[in-house]
Amino acid sequence: QKEVEQDPGPLSVPEGAIVSLNCTYSNSAFQYFMWYRQYSRKGPELLMYTYSSGNKEDGRFTAQVDKSSKYISLFIRDSQPSDSATYLCAMSPFSGGYNKLIFGAGTRLAVHP
Amino acid sequence: DSGVTQTPKHLITATGQRVTLRCSPRSGDLSVYWYQQSLDQGLQFLIQYYNGEERAKGNILERFSAQQFPDLHSELNLSSLELGDSALYFCASSVRGGGETQYFGPGTRLLVL
After folding, report:
1. Confidence check: pLDDT of B36 > 90
2. Which of A77, A78, A48 is nearest to A65 (CA)?
3. What pLDDT does A111 receive?
4. Which distant-in-sequence residues (6+ apart) come within 8 Å of B94 by Cβ?
């Protein structure tokens, strides 16, 4: 079993839809949770960063972390064709200097006009 | 643009050969990370350096080695290359090396023939 599970999709939605992306994990030591967006053949770009549990909002993006359920989510409101990309969740344990990100497999999202 | 640079962008080589990938971190970042992204394994952590010293190791093969130089740039050396080493190799950097954000470079696409 992988430490981080993420449905690879693909997920296809119409423009303007609310998108929900999710990851589950097994390692209770994870403290830092991130969502990266990766366009084809490009480097991952950080979207959201959360420490421990709770919600964080940034524009059209909302990240949620539920440590009791070992479940994280990313919501995209008013989705746009430019949001079409692969979304990777990533996690890291509290480390004091050792920072190994564990990534999910990535969910491919297509937003069609 | 994340501020992390990687060279070369593309590399084509033959089995058994050795290559060197180069990474320059963002200005002020002391930690450098190397990741491998392949279709079947996803994005996997290889190794972390902090201010010239190795800090954490992931799934890095013995044929692979890395180092971080006094000017903080890093090199990943891949030797005795096999077909299965074909992948995207990303470098990321962060300020210190704890749980803070990692910024990714554009990657080097390696094709082993």
Report:
1. yes
2. A48
3. 97
4. A99, B29, B30, B31, B33, B100, B101, B102, B103
Structure tokens at B101: 């954000």
Q: Cβ of A98 and B56 within 8 Å?
A: yes
| B31 bridge partner residues | B50, B94
Q: What is the mean pLDDT of residues A49-76?
A: 93
Angstrom CA distances, A87 to A6, A24, A72, B63, B76, stand at 10, 14, 13, 31, 26
Among the partner residues A42, A103, A105, nearest to B106 by beta-carbon distance: A42
Smallest CA–CA distance, residue A99 to chain B, in Å, is 5
Statement: residue A39 has pLDDT above 80: yes
Q: What tokens appear for A94 in the block?
A: 């509290």
Asked if B99 lies within 8 A of A100 by C-beta distance, the reply is no
Chain A partners within 8 Å of B89 (Cβ): none
Q: What is the mean pLDDT of chain B?
A: 93
One-letter amino acid for residue A106 of the chain: G
Contact A97 B42 (CB under 8 A): no
Whether the CB-CB separation of A71 and A78 falls below 8 Å is answered with: no
